[in-house]
Amino acid sequence: MPALSGGGRDALSHSERYQEWEFHYSLMPVPARAAFFGTAQIHREGKRHCELPIFEPQCNALASIDLLREQCLAWIENCPVVANQPATSAN
């Protein structure tokens, strides 16, 4: 389970790595809707490449992070930076 930290009034944040990529999540609970909204920033080598909003609010922070992670991985899979990168040799 990821460790979540507060980044402001009731805001939650979490960061994780996937290969050379970093995902920075920022979530905000919306009590009136019993859901979490938020975004994920995708970084590589210290440079921000994209910020994705959560399109489908989730009932808890972990489900929100899971959904944002899926969106990040899909973005990386279709990312021009990765598509134009030469394959690395295992030698």
Features:
2 helices; disordered C terminus; five-stranded antiparallel beta sheet; alpha+beta; 91 residues; 40% strand
Q: Give the uncertain stretches in residue-range form.
A: 86-91
Counting DSSP E segments of at least 2 residues, the number of strands comes to 5
Task: Write the element-wise H/E pattern from the N-terminal end onward.
Answer: EEEEEHH
CA gyration radius, whole angstroms: 15 Å
Largest sheet: 5 strands, antiparallel
Q: What is the tally of helical segments?
A: 2
Distance between the termini: 36 Å
What is the approximate shape?
A: elongated
Into which percent range does the helicity of residues fall? 10-25%
Average pLDDT works out at 83
Estimate the strand proportion.
35-45%
Give the spatial strand order of the biggest sheet.
1-2-3-4-5
Work out the count of structural domains.
1
| Structure class | alpha+beta
- Oligomer state equals single chain
Describe this structure as you would to a colleague.
This protein has 91 residues and is an alpha+beta fold. It has one domain. It is built from two helices and five strands, in the order βββββαα. The chain has a five-stranded antiparallel β-sheet with strand order 1-2-3-4-5, covered by helices on one side. A hairpin with a 2-residue loop joins β4 and β5. The C terminus is likely disordered.
